[in-house]
Amino acid sequence: MLRGLYPGRFQPFHLGHLNVVKWALDRVDELVVLVGSAQESHTLSNPFTAGERIEMIRMGLKEYGLDERTIVVPISDVLMNSVWVYHVKIHVPKFGKVFARNPLVLRLFKEAGYEVEMPPLYNREKYNSTIIRKYIIVGENWSELVPKSVHRYIVEEIHGDERLKDIAGSDK
Fold first, then answer.
1. What is the pLDDT of residues 141-159, one digit of tens each?
2. Domain encompassing residue 136
3. CATH code for the domain of 77
4. CA 154 to chain centre
């Protein structure tokens, strides 16, 4: 069985991420979705906690029937690139392939002997967490950019939209 790894911050999990998961699952039997920067929350760049992001990802994957072949794992940052791959290896189940667009992530895993593959962009100017967070802050419509379950969770369950607006207001 071939298991892949897909690292990201997922702040929030959007339809571009979902498309990468679908694409990766065409290439592996199972996929570990690695929730990076797990220690970060309540900032403009990282407004959601690791637990909230895990919930979002699980809900989105279940909504699209992709939850049976995925494992979601959080990981805190290590501020030394040379040991990051080892840090990942001790926190996730064994994997053989890495899917990422970040050149540094690809380089680190390639140097560690992993097969790496860069997923295609899925309408990046639309499906982009930075843009989605901006839309939330300024009150523009972002509901079509994330799975319905993720939108509902952010707005109705954790009031993440209000949190992000508060954080943005306190940064001024």
1. 999 999 999 999 999 999 9
2. 3-168
3. 3.40.50.620
4. 15
CA dist list (Å): 49 to 55, 61, 128, 164: 10, 18, 18, 12
Domain count, the chain: 1
Consecutive H or E run containing 150: helix 148-152
Give the separation between CA 156 and CA 15, rounded to whole angstroms.
19
- Paired residues of 7 in beta bridges: 34
Between CA 47 and CA 70 the distance in angstroms is 24
The pLDDT, as a whole number, for residue 124 is: 87
**pTM greater than 0.90 (yes/no):** yes
DSSP secondary structure letter of residue 36: -
| Confidence at residue 24, expressed as pLDDT on a 0 to 100 scale | 98
Helix, strand, coil percent content, the chain, rounded in steps of 5: 45, 15, 40
Q: Most distant CA pair in the chain: distance in Å?
A: 50
Give the closest residue to 165 by CA, choosing from 131, 132, 138. Answer: 138
AA letter at 89? K
Q: What is the pLDDT of residues 26-56, one digit of tens each?
A: 999 999 999 999 999 999 999 999 999 999 9
